[in-house]
């Protein structure tokens, strides 16, 4: 993925006294080690902090985006980020509350490490006094023998404490149980924090609040081994106001990789945000100021039909993840589908993504009569209904009205040599793919 983010245009809001106040207003602080100390720490000299991402898939998703943007906000406040992609923890698997993970091969995990490092790099600046650095926990776990691991790290963990961690406790009470492999995950994550504390004087780890047990395993280990106090910050798990899980679209996670979730689908996901959730999403997922977000909140309350908040949210987040150029293409595609733009300027990938959810049919090149097309696409249930649609002026091919029921669509009208967009009336759309 190319580096499409315009990092130079990102700023924290100077209206806040310090970064902690802004993080709190944005709703990013759910749980932390010591709020007073953390506020003082983050308002002082630059510190080093880290967040870890495990390669359990070839892409990061919206939950990870919360952490990436939190890391960026802290960097904008002058602090030094470490982006950890877990080459070793990704081989083990963070225990899920329900069932054991399927272990991926070492080659697969190594490949995914590369993908995720590329994604993390796009959200942080690797230049300047507080340049970000990438680290991989395989670098310090791979050389460690099992005996050394048990003697030097394992002896500092109490099984009773480990059993009380939420994910472990829920698994122990399930039919599935938990393997020693996944049970040991929190020890490995604790060891990461200790290593980064020693190597970089890292004194803050961030993560989702569902990771709190893993975050505190590190703070406790450093306290026992080094006699030092370090910090952890857990962000809230984001849910929709109606109680449904955020970040799922049609049953799938909303991925940051454009090959796994197209920029069009990504944009539509944000555009479909409920009015009740828009302001919260703007706070977490954009760099807009408090004044800008409050103004959009008023617009949503007073003119919900205009969807100003949703449009701004979709534009900002899609630009952050996929770049301004891809976002402009998506907006053009949305307009063009409903006759407010030129379909011929859309590249094939954007067109395919924009029409992916529409009814579609494949026909051969000698079936390009308008009546046949309307019936084949399902927009008309019979030839007589199709003739009626044409006669009433309701038939469009590639946004051009077709008034002659005997019209044959010419080959040179096919989009990218093989597609047609059919419309009946204002809102009923379908696509035709013409086979060679």
Automatic annotation (TrEMBL):
<dbReference type="InterPro" id="IPR001412">
    <property type="entry name" value="aa-tRNA-synth_I_CS"/>
</dbReference>
<feature type="binding site">
    <location>
        <position position="185"/>
    </location>
    <ligand>
        <name>L-tyrosine</name>
    </ligand>
</feature>
<keyword id="KW-0547">Nucleotide-binding</keyword>
<protein>
    <recommendedName>
        <fullName>Tyrosine--tRNA ligase</fullName>
        <ecNumber>6.1.1.1</ecNumber>
    </recommendedName>
</protein>
<dbReference type="Pfam" id="PF22421">
    <property type="entry name" value="SYY_C-terminal"/>
</dbReference>
<feature type="binding site">
    <location>
        <position position="50"/>
    </location>
    <ligand>
        <name>L-tyrosine</name>
    </ligand>
</feature>
<keyword id="KW-0436">Ligase</keyword>
<keyword id="KW-0648">Protein biosynthesis</keyword>
<feature type="domain" description="Tyrosine--tRNA ligase SYY-like C-terminal">
    <location>
        <begin position="352"/>
        <end position="429"/>
    </location>
</feature>
<dbReference type="InterPro" id="IPR014729">
    <property type="entry name" value="Rossmann-like_a/b/a_fold"/>
</dbReference>
<keyword id="KW-0030">Aminoacyl-tRNA synthetase</keyword>
<keyword id="KW-0963">Cytoplasm</keyword>
<dbReference type="InterPro" id="IPR036986">
    <property type="entry name" value="S4_RNA-bd_sf"/>
</dbReference>
<comment type="function">
    <text>Catalyzes the attachment of tyrosine to tRNA(Tyr) in a two-step reaction: tyrosine is first activated by ATP to form Tyr-AMP and then transferred to the acceptor end of tRNA(Tyr).</text>
</comment>
<dbReference type="InterPro" id="IPR002307">
    <property type="entry name" value="Tyr-tRNA-ligase"/>
</dbReference>
<feature type="short sequence motif" description="'HIGH' region">
    <location>
        <begin position="55"/>
        <end position="64"/>
    </location>
</feature>
<dbReference type="Pfam" id="PF00579">
    <property type="entry name" value="tRNA-synt_1b"/>
</dbReference>
<comment type="similarity">
    <text>Belongs to the class-I aminoacyl-tRNA synthetase family. TyrS type 1 subfamily.</text>
</comment>
<keyword id="KW-0694">RNA-binding</keyword>
<comment type="subunit">
    <text>Homodimer.</text>
</comment>
<dbReference type="InterPro" id="IPR002305">
    <property type="entry name" value="aa-tRNA-synth_Ic"/>
</dbReference>
<dbReference type="InterPro" id="IPR054608">
    <property type="entry name" value="SYY-like_C"/>
</dbReference>
<keyword id="KW-0067">ATP-binding</keyword>
<dbReference type="GO" id="GO:0004831">
    <property type="term" value="F:tyrosine-tRNA ligase activity"/>
</dbReference>
<feature type="short sequence motif" description="'KMSKS' region">
    <location>
        <begin position="245"/>
        <end position="249"/>
    </location>
</feature>
<feature type="binding site">
    <location>
        <position position="248"/>
    </location>
    <ligand>
        <name>ATP</name>
    </ligand>
</feature>
<feature type="binding site">
    <location>
        <position position="189"/>
    </location>
    <ligand>
        <name>L-tyrosine</name>
    </ligand>
</feature>
<dbReference type="InterPro" id="IPR024107">
    <property type="entry name" value="Tyr-tRNA-ligase_bac_1"/>
</dbReference>
<dbReference type="InterPro" id="IPR024088">
    <property type="entry name" value="Tyr-tRNA-ligase_bac-type"/>
</dbReference>
